[in-house]
């Protein structure tokens, strides 16, 4: 049976919305990571059989199939196609799944999977504009804002505001520690940015982590979605800009090309979940992917569960009975940011490098998604 391996992974720094990457077009960022990926891997763009990229708001500079545009901008040959997909916050992870499936089926041997989003230049909701839910949907399900879903999760699982804020503070602490120790240096490609005065500079680090964050400052923030709520800007993921990409191959092709397979994809799944609570999908997705792999949560050396809001990883921890020390060890989206379509590829890139740094064997990644869905993936490090 064919085996799918990950050969290389790279990402841009993640910038805050309206921050250091505000003048960088998303298609330029996507092209930059594609170009960097093949250079790092030492493969010819000629050999790439498809480019699959996640992107949620597919309008304006992110419209008209940004994956194809980025491939052409990266000087890939015209015979290399590209397609852009939207599985909401899990789009970049779904791109990895689709690439995996194309290789497993035998249709392709070498595929790039990734994602991109500029929430500065293409604001959240830009693709929906002023339209509302169809009555056929709203009459069947209570369709609410994700922030309200997070409020309901916090209430259902009994999470206090203090607990949520402490989790957020720890996310920043871990991200700052990881940055200071250079844990992200290998996975991040330095990115040239243009400043408002026309000058340029090079960005090498994520902009999101806040050194001055304290529990007192978090506790002073006003609730964002309900007057007496517990969810606010400080315990929610940051709106962000960024891009990431991974190179996947059949193991036979990697060995034929003399490339070192770094990880194999063990199992993957996607599930639907309650569209009102919306953010609980990673629980069922985790159970399903572990069952597919014939493994348990205790076999996992690290896990990345996207921090859409603090209650999301916390309810996952409680239901899965996982080790909090293994969860998002270098911080998550609350500190590092959540550039929607890019996040799935960013998390996988970071998890790969963390497992290599620590010598861990298995990693699990799960992301909640708009409309009530979740992807989950298990990877295994390949010994040298």
TrEMBL record:
Transmembrane segments: none annotated. Gene3D superfamilies: 3.40.47.10. PANTHER family: ACETYL-COA C-ACYLTRANSFERASE, BLR7806 PROTEIN. This is Acetyl-CoA C-acyltransferase. The active site is at 89 (acyl-thioester intermediate), 338 (proton acceptor), 368 (proton acceptor). Its EC number is 2.3.1.16. Residues 4-252 form the Thiolase N-terminal domain. The keyword Zinc does not apply. Belongs to the thiolase-like superfamily. Thiolase family. Residues 260-381 form the Thiolase C-terminal domain. InterPro entries: Thiolase, Thiolase-like, Thiolase_C, Thiolase_CS, Thiolase_N. Keywords: Acyltransferase, Transferase. The keyword Acyltransferase applies. GO terms for molecular function: acetyl-CoA C-acyltransferase activity. It comes from the Bacteria. It comes from Pontibacillus yanchengensis.
């Amino acid at each position: 049976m064919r085996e799918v391996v990950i050969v290389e992974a790279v990402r841009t720094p993640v910038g805050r919305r309206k921050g250091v990457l505000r003048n960088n077009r998303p298609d330029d960022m996507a092209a930059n990571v594609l170009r960097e990926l093949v250079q790092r891997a030492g493969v010819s763009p000629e050999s790439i059989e498809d480019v699959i990229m996640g992107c949620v708001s597919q309008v304006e500079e992110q419209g008209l199939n940004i994956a194809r545009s980025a491939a052409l901008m990266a000087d890939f040959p015209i015979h290399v196609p590209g397609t852009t997909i939207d599985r909401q916050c899990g789009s970049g992870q779904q791109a990895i799944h689709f690439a995996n499936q194309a290789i497993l089926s035998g249709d392709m041997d070498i595929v790039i999977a990734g994602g991109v989003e500029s929430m500065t230049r293409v604001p959240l909701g830009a693709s929906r504009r002023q339209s509302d839910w169809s009555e056929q949907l709203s009459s069947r399900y209570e369709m609410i804002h994700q922030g309200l879903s997070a409020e309901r999760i916090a209430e259902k699982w009994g999470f206090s505001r203090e607990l949520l804020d402490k989790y957020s503070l720890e996310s920043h602490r871990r991200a700052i520690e990881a940055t200071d120790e250079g844990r992200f240096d290998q996975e991040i490609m330095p990115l040239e940015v243009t400043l408002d005065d026309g000058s340029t500079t090079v960005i090498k680090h994520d902009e999101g982590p806040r050194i001055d964050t304290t529990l007192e400052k978090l506790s002073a923030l006003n609730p964002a979605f309900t007057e007496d709520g517990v969810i606010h800007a400080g315990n929610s993921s940051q709106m962000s800009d960024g891009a990431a990409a991974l190179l996947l191959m059949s193991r036979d092709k990697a060995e034929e090309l003399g490339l070192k397979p770094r990880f194999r994809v063990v199992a993957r799944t996607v599930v639907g979940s309650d569209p009102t609570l919306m953010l609980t999908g990673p629980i069922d997705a985790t159970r399903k992917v572990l069952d597919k792999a014939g493994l348990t949560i205790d076999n996992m050396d690290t896990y990345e569960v996207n921090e859409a809001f603090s209650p999301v990883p916390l309810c996952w921890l409680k239901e899965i009975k996982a080790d909090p020390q293994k969860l998002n060890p270098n911080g998550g989206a609350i500190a590092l940011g959540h550039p929607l379509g890019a996040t799935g590829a960013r998390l996988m890139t970071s998890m790969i490098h963390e497992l290599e740094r620590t010598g861990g064997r298995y990693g699990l990644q799960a992301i909640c998604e708009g409309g009530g869905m979740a992807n989950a993936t298990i990877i295994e490090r390949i010994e040298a």
